[in-house]
Design goal:
The protein is an alpha/beta fold. It has two domains: 5-92; 108-240 and 281-368, 3-Layer(aba) Sandwich (Rossmann fold). The chain is 36% helix and 14% strand. It has helices at 5-16, 20-29, 34-38, 53-60, 64-70, 79-84, 86-92, 120-126, 157-174, 187-197, 299-309, 325-332, 346-353, 355-368, 376-384; strands spanning 108-109, 113-116, 132-137, 175-185, 202-210, 225-232, 244-245, 272-273, 277-278, 315-318, 336-340. Helix 9 packs across helix 10. It starts with a helix and ends in an 11-residue tail after the last helix.
């Protein structure tokens, strides 16, 4: 199945034994610019191609309906006929065979966790149905970045979506009823993930994680957040531990950035409830804090996710190990964990060998950045500048 029309055209080009330039020349002969074809690489939309559908039909040797069906689209005028004939259609379909991988041995294990140096789909195939409490995934963003050998970050749009739906489907399968799933990616891919997950899980939140120091893109809105999709299996989450964080304040004077009006005296001294906009998660950029040259997730973000959605003794699964943040935080929080990483696992094992550094980071987060209304430095600044503190309202 194709999700992107360009990928369908490219497949037909390959079958014909043509070069890309030969394909572009065919469409140029139909007065269709090369740019009109190239722009199809980055979209699953076909709304703009109706004017040159005849040329697409000629090039692919397919009817208009066949083109639509190849893209997984049933045109509105055919839907009644489709549902009227659904029994006969279902009898024509054959499920894709799935092979269960056996015999994979973990490369590393701890008191709480097990790590496999393998493809996540192979590891997922070994895991029983409804066996984990939390899934967190931070897949490659398909931005053509250089990662370890064996990791592809430059797939065609259809291939990337199809691959994503495979591991997402397996993650749905292994998630326990009431379990929570968090998927971290760019908003573009988040829309496709949500379209898939809405069919199998219950939507809870689209969490916007502020993107620090992003660059503007010409002709588009300024990109300012990553998407963190939050779903649960079934009607409600089996576990939801409310997370509280400090109120946002001015770093110069200590004054609160939000006007709490007449409710200051009712504010919880343990902090404000976490919303679906996370502006306090900062990227791990400094060399002294990083465990690898590539992007790395912060301990603070994984502490929030895992603490919110699980309890000690629960099991967390992360199919894309990266630098191992999910596994280290799970270990320190007393959660069981299962992980897979196709690339260099030595980064992760070395991190566990020096886990005291992450323990110190987590301790700092828990003492200064959660379950308090104002951190101690902010309290001092507010007192100096005459701003209220929670104890001012005590009788």
């Amino acid at each position: 199945m194709y999700y992107c029309l360009y990928d369908l055209l490219n497949e037909k080009r390959t079958e014909k034994g043509e070069t890309s330039q030969e394909m572009y020349r065919f469409f140029q002969g139909k007065k269709i610019k090369k740019a009109d074809i190239v722009q199809l690489k980055d979209t699953c939309s076909i709304g703009s191609v109706k004017k040159f559908l005849p040329a697409i039909e000629e090039y692919t040797g397919m009817t208009e309906l066949e083109v639509y069906l190849s893209l997984g689209i049933i045109p509105e005028e055919y839907k009644k006929s489709f549902f009227d004939n659904i029994t006969s259609i279902s009898q024509m379909l054959v499920p894709e065979s799935k092979e269960r991988v056996t015999g994979l041995s973990p490369i590393f294990s701890t008191q709480f966790g097990t790590l496999y140096n393998a493809d996540c789909l192979d590891v997922l195939s070994m895991l029983p149905d409804e066996s984990v409490n939390v899934v967190f995934a931070d897949p490659p963003f398909n931005l053509s970045k250089e990662y370890d050998t064996g990791i592809k970050d430059d797939l065609g749009m259809s291939e990337y979506i199809s691959w994503s739906y495979k591991w997402l489907g397996e993650c749905v399968r292994i998630l326990k009823p009431g379990g929570s799933m968090f998927i971290y990616n760019l908003p573009k891919w988040g829309t496709y993930y949500a379209d898939f997950l809405n069919k199998y899980l219950t939507f809870r939140s689209w969490i916007g994680v502020n993107m620090k120091a992003s660059l503007p893109i010409a002709g588009r809105l300024y990109p300012a957040h990553y998407a963190l999709l939050y779903y649960v299996k079934g009607g409600q989450a089996y576990t939801f531990n409310n997370q509280r964080i400090p109120a946002e304040t001015c770093r110069h004077c200590g004054g609160e950035l939000h006007d709490y009006g007449g409710y200051k005296n009712k504010m919880n001294p343990s902090g404000v409830n976490v919303s679906d906009i996370w502006s306090d998660i900062y990227p791990v950029r400094h060399k002294k804090d990083k465990n690898r040259p590539f992007n790395e997730l912060s301990v603070k973000m994984l502490d929030r996710i895992i603490s919110m959605s699980s309890n000690p003794g629960d099991t967390v699964f992360d199919p894309f190990g990266g630098s191992g943040t999910t596994y280290v935080v799970s270990e320190l929080l007393g959660r069981n964990w299962i992980g897979s990483e196709l690339g260099n696992c030595k980064i992760i094992t070395d991190r566990f060998a020096n886990i005291q550094r992450d323990r110190d980071t987590l301790s700092q987060v828990q003492q200064r950045e959660k379950n308090i209304l104002f951190s101690e430095p902010v309290r001092i600044l507010r007192k100096k500048n005459g701003f209220w503190l929670p104890e001012d309202f005590k009788k």
